[in-house]
Amino acid sequence: MKERILVVDDEKDIQAILQYNLEKEGFVVDVASSAEEAENKLTNTHRLILLDVMMEGISGFTLAERLRKKENHVPIIFLTAKNSENDVLTGFSSGGDDYIAKPFSMKEVVARVKALLRRAQLATPPVEESWSFQGLEIDLPTTRVTVDGNEVSLTKKEFEILTLLVRVAPNVLTRVDILDSVWGEHEYVLDRTVDVHITRLRKKLGEYAHLIVNRSGFGYYFNVDAKGSDK
Q1: 123, 149, 171 — which closes off a domain?
Q2: Which candidate in 37, 41, 62, 165 could, as Cys together with 222 as Cys, close a disulfide (CB 3.0–4.6 Å)?
Q3: Cβ 45 vs Cβ 74: under 8 Å
């Protein structure tokens, strides 16, 4: 399913440029010319908002604050010519997730949009309570993993890596994605740490190790379509 984005800007030419280029990238794009119109158009199908700060009527900062007060946590990227340190801090404190200064390049906008959507996906808690693939079973409430009925002893990090890969399957996660999600941005570890943990994890999964695949030059993914062991 294509991801839906809401573009909010009172300049029609900027609206058109953003909509055209984002749709070329495969997104579904809705547009609004004011914060008031954005509030009426915003639905739970929107995965991100590109939000101008300086608009007539309600400002982008105020709209973001309103949404956060309503417990709406849709990711927000501010677009604005106001890029002083105080403006940036105001944007983040009002609930923004990223900040792009005008004039901007579309390459930067697309890259920021994709990066924020990926971060949001990784942060989304799983809905399922358990997964089963062939003889591999993962139970989230008890943090138990079994292979052909036998419980496997995983460390906390190994369990988090496994469930993360399963949750986003079949998408590929880079080592940085895994580090940010499992270790967090405030914990300093090397990319190699991910490889070491996944090597140990695959060893513990035995004949189901083939479900975790290393796509050279890209990262790791959980192969939900795998039919058998690659041993």
Answers
A1: 123
A2: 165
A3: no
Pairing of strands 98-101, 150-152: unpaired
Q: Which domain holds residue 177?
A: 130-222
State the residue for tokens 């990066």: 115
- Residue 132's SS3 state is strand
Task: Give the count of domains, the chain.
Answer: 2
Closest of 208, 202, 216 to residue 174, by C-alpha: 216
Extended beta strands in the chain, E state: 4-8, 28-32, 46-52, 76-80, 98-101, 130-133, 136-139, 144-147, 150-152, 212-215, 219-222
Whole-model pTM? 0.60
**Phi (first) and psi of residue 180, to 5 degrees:** -65, -40
Contact 166, 113 (CB under 8 A): no
111 and 22, same domain (yes or no): yes
Per-residue pLDDT of 100-150, as tens digits, reads 888 899 999 999 898 888 877 776 655 567 888 889 999 988 889 999 999
CATH of the domain at 39: 3.40.50.2300
